[in-house]
């Protein structure tokens, strides 16, 4: 039933967590699993198996690496105040997700999930325009070029609301990310400040 269930799988979620939590939305495991948990675990492993190949017959694309055409980002976090357009983005490493907590919430068809991904690597192109504060000076921040981002030890906790159709196939009606943390993030923006000393300082 895993492949059939994948054909009915229609999660609604933010892009930033879609790749990490897509498999987790219907997944629970462990001793004493309920019927829903058994079905969810089967769907999860089916999903993991096709992340690198996709399933054209059900219009499911490759999701590791996932490809995102363009994402606008506003950064207002000291010392940065900038607008960024990230494009031609590839996100790799999500297939290595692991669940630290997967439990059906008693008396409901909802799931409490905690998931972790050891390493996520992002590459693409960027176009940035804004300002950065270096010491006591605000400097215009600009540049275009390749970007690389590495995230280590990504962890997230979420609550997923499910609804079963008449065939017993679950679909996601809501997803709430309750918390997320990471051990380390590194970002490299090539050609920042035309690749000079200032660009190396900001990176």
Tell me about this structure.
With 203 residues, the chain is α+β, with helices and mostly antiparallel strands. The chain has a domain at 67-202: TULIP domain (Bactericidal permeability-increasing protein, domain 1, Super Roll). The protein is 17% helix and 50% strand. The protein has 4 helices and 7 strands; from the N terminus they run αααβββββββα. Strands 1, 2, 3, 4, 5, 6 and 7 form a 7-stranded antiparallel β-sheet that branches. The radius of gyration is 20 Å and the shape is elongated. 21% of the residues are buried.
Number of strands: 7
CATH class of the domain at 67-202: Alpha Beta
Described by the principal axes of the CA atoms, the overall outline is: elongated
Number of helices: 4
Uncertain residue ranges: 1-17, 26-32
InterPro entries: Haemolymph_juvenile_hormone-bd (IPR010562), To_sf (IPR038606)
Keywords: Signal
Signal peptide: 1-33
Write the layout of secondary structure elements.
Blueprint: H1 2-7, H2 15-21, H3 35-50, E1 66-77, E2 80-92, E3 98-104, E4 111-134, E5 137-164, E6 170-181, E7 184-189, H4 197-202
Brief overview:
17% of the residues lie in helices and 50% in strands. By secondary structure, it is of the alpha+beta class.
Pick out its properties.
203 residues, 4 helices, seven-stranded antiparallel sheet, 17% helix
């Amino acid at each position: 039933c895993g492949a059939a269930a994948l054909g009915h799988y229609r999660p609604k979620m933010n892009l930033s967590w879609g790749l990490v939590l897509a498999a987790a939305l219907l997944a629970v495991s462990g001793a004493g699993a309920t019927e829903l948990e058994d079905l969810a675990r089967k769907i999860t492993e089916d999903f993991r198996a096709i992340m690198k190949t996709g399933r054209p017959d059900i219009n499911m694309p490759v999701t590791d690496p996932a490809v995102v055409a363009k994402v606008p980002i506003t950064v207002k976090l000291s010392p940065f105040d900038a607008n960024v357009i990230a494009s031609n983005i590839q996100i790799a490493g999500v297939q290595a997700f692991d669940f630290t907590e997967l439990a059906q919430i008693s008396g409901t068809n909802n799931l409490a999930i905690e998931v972790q991904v050891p390493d996520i690597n992002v590459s693409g192109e960027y176009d940035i325009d804004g300002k950065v504060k270096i010491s006591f000076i605000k400097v215009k921040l600009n540049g275009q070029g390749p970007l690389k981002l590495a995230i280590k030890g990504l962890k997230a906790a979420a609550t997923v609301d499910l609804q079963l159709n008449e065939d017993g196939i679950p679909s996601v009606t809501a997803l709430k990310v309750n918390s997320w943390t990471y051990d380390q993030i590194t970002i490299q923006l090539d050609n920042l400040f035309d690749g000079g000393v200032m660009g190396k300082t900001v990176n």
